[in-house]
Amino acid sequence: MKLRYTGKTKDVYELENGNYLLKFKDDVTGVDGVFDPGANTVGLTMEGAGRAGLRLTKFFFEILKEKGIPTHYIDADIDQATMTVRPAAVFGKGLEVICRYRAVGSFLRRYGLYAQEGQHLDAFVEVTLKDDERQDPPVSEDALDMLGILSKDEYKVLKALTQQIGNVVKEELAKKGIELYDIKFEFGRVGEDKQIALIDEISGGNMRAFKDGEYIEPLELEKMFL
Q1: Do the strands 10-14 and 20-24 form a parallel or antiparallel pair, or are they unpaired?
Q2: Can you give the chain as a three-state secondary structure string?
Q3: Quick one: pLDDT at residue 154?
Q4: Which residue of 8, 145, 205, 213 is most buried, as measured by CB atoms within 10 A?
């Protein structure tokens, strides 16, 4: 295996057969020791977070596979904290796509003049550039197209997939009495036909989930849900 990329929460290795291996780490994003899925820095290390994130990722990716929703997932090894995936080309230098059901986090910080904390949002989709230096700025559909990152037709597919996948996660969590406030996804072009597909992960470290109005930490979410 060849190490191709060291990320905040996982390392990426290239396999001899052309697929990739994601190694999940116990680091989670946040600021000053406080977890924040919207942060662009590693805020803390939580023992067991890597395997917990992979368990949730495996669960959700396999549901998406059953539903025919495109992803890069092949299989996962919980003991080794690894996931095998198909190669994918990211959009530009990387995008993050957030699906929001409640006004919290960066949405509230940005639109607090108009939004009330916790107010309901209708699967609002927001795209940001992966750019730590500029604090992951939001980017519009027109800008994505004009900058050559994503065509308008591709944006429609991206938005529809985001809401479809977000609703799958939301409905599964609701079965356990857990409410999804927001969730962050990554997408890429997969295969010879460059199909837009979900990549990366679906874990507690990428979402805000609450039960009875109380926030659930990523490790607790995995225990409570699975």
Answers
A1: antiparallel
A2: CEEEEECCCEEEEECCCCCEEEEECCEEEEECCEECCCCCCEEEECCCHHHHHHHHHHHHHHHHHHCCCCECEEEEECCCCEEEECCEEECCCCEEEEEEEECCHHHHHHHCCCCCCCCEEEEEEEEEECCHHHCCCECCHHHHHHCCCCCHHHHHHHHHHHHHHHHHHHHHHHCCCCEEEEEEEEEEEECCCCEEEEECCCCHHHEEEEECCEECCHHHHHHHHC
A3: 97
A4: 205
Report the first-to-last Cα separation within the chain, whole angstroms: 31
Amino acid at 88: A
Distances (CA, A) of 122 to 134, 156, 180, 216: 27, 17, 12, 22
pLDDT digits (tens, 9 = 90+) for 9-56: 899 999 999 999 999 998 777 777 777 776 667 767 878 889 999 999
